[in-house]
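Input set for joint prediction.
Command: fold jointly, output tokens.
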Amino acid sequence: MAQIASTQLLLTPNEMGMADKAAVVAGESAFTLMASAGKAVADAIMTRWSKHSVLVMAGPGNNGGDGFVIAQALLQHGWPVTLAFMGQIDVMSEEAQAHAKAWQGEWQTLSPTQLENAELVVDALFGAGLSRPIEGVAHDMLEAVAQSGLPVCAVDVPSGLDGETGQVFGVTVNAELTVTFFRKKPGHLLFPGRGLCGELMVADIGIPVTVLDELNLQTWENNPELWYQKYPWPRLDGHKFHRGHAVVYGGETMTGASRLTARGAMRIGAGLVTLAAPIKAWAVYATALTGVMVAKLEQSQETEDFEELLLDSRHNAIAVGPGAGLAGFERIRTRKIALTALLTGRATVLDADALSAFSEDPQILFDAINGPCVMTPHEGEFMRLFPDINNSPEINNTPEIKKNHPDNKLTRARLAAKQSGAVVVLKGADTVIAAPDGLAIINSNAPAELATGGSGDVLTGFIVGLLAQGMEPFDAAAAAVWMHGEVGNDIGAGLIAEDLPDHLPKVLSTFKTQYFS
Ligand SMILES: NC(=O)C1=CN([C@@H]2O[C@H](COP(=O)(O)OP(=O)(O)OC[C@H]3O[C@@H](n4cnc5c(N)ncnc54)[C@H](OP(=O)(O)O)[C@@H]3O)[C@@H](O)[C@H]2O)[C@@H](O)CC1
Ligand SMILES: Nc1ncnc2c1ncn2[C@@H]1O[C@H](COP(=O)(O)OP(=O)(O)O)[C@@H](O)[C@H]1O
Ligand SMILES: [K+]
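tokens >
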């Protein structure tokens, strides 16, 4: 995957530091890298804004070094520039000192009063080297910038934002534009970080792509580049059995949920979809569904009937959870149905009630996962199923506290995948898809309109539909999440879950034209 989609790789600040060092070892000069970084930001500023009175805030490390380059470039183009420095020049890196010496304007010491005459702020206080919450004058300054409402261009990250987790260390600013270098960082895509960066630009500063080979990177931003080659397009000589047969379990009360799942599975191309439902609700399903077949599960022997249905090995992918039921005895039935699905060893998606039904003893569920499995919890379901990951004092107190901090959504999803043996799709505005072996993808194309009842049920349908067509769980989950986001964008305002499956064909056509013609 790394070679196919190198542009989608995400580097933590630490990994970016390693890439930076490897580039220097490979013959790039640190001075030139910093010059290119600063120039890229200055160019972006001059493209976006007309000549304004600029305040460049330069911090004590190389982020501040970039600030000196930016200030000088803008000054040379006739912009009125004030440079506000915080730090000690003689302890800065050689390249930062060299660029600081090249600054031909006036120096000032960082202070909130400098905002009075500013029309635009360049934030080069802290970048990848942020190591603790911001305090003192830097804190006051960032707070004053935030309150001023002035437009901000952030260098690498808005200062205070942790590029690894997307969390804020004490205080930060809301940037209108963020220019980062070489590759994005997870913190640019994970909330709240994503909401603080404004428009995000990635500048090529001359770091050779070959440095990535040495880094064993495992995190990507979701994009078809990652999985389009494995996408199961219908074969010219194919028939419906080549496209798999998905089985969706439907409960007795919330019948809409599993119907959305079944329709999602059909639309994404499963050859056949059977919805298996308890007899009490059978008529509802049978009346409402046309292309989807409905199988009856007799009263008091639903699990046995479900098991029997699955004896047919053509039923190659199963979804359990949407509308499965948690009230009273339904909870036990949902558990049994989920375990029956997992026992077949066939590709299974577990969502919603199939996750919550195991909140008291999740290990029973994890022990049953021996085949390809995708779990799609939202935050609430995740908390119920993985309380250890969220609350364990061990996790909060390890030396790697930052990496394992519960606010690190990427780490939480990875730990959950490892613990359960399933691909975990931790949903939200910044959905993370993680595999038990540590590979992870952050999704970034989903619009807020997707936050509506039933939208997750459709996602489950997309995933099971791709699994039925033979896609591997990690790829199927990534592809489905991306399609879901694209469909959401396509529909836009007014979106309801029912629309999602029926708008998929348009998104699929665009995808097909782009990647397969
Ligand atoms: N990657 C690339 O390819 C390239 C990267 N480049 C640029 O380099 C940047 C990374 O530079 P960097 O490593 O020097 O870190 P940076 O963010 O400037 O801060 C470190 C300083 O801040 C201090 N400090 C930390 N936290 C603090 C706090 N809360 N409150 C107060 N102080 C605090 C810390 O002090 P210490 O922790 O050591 O006490 C240290 O002095 C990167 O973001 C990008 O802009 C480009 O130039 C070229 C190519
Ligand atoms: N603010 C948001 N921006 C983008 N996508 C979102 C947002 N909130 C939720 N989503 C997506 O919408 C879907 C909601 O799923 P879920 O919470 O299971 O809802 P339901 O159970 O009603 O189907 C998920 O795919 C999630 O990633
Ligand atoms: K910054």
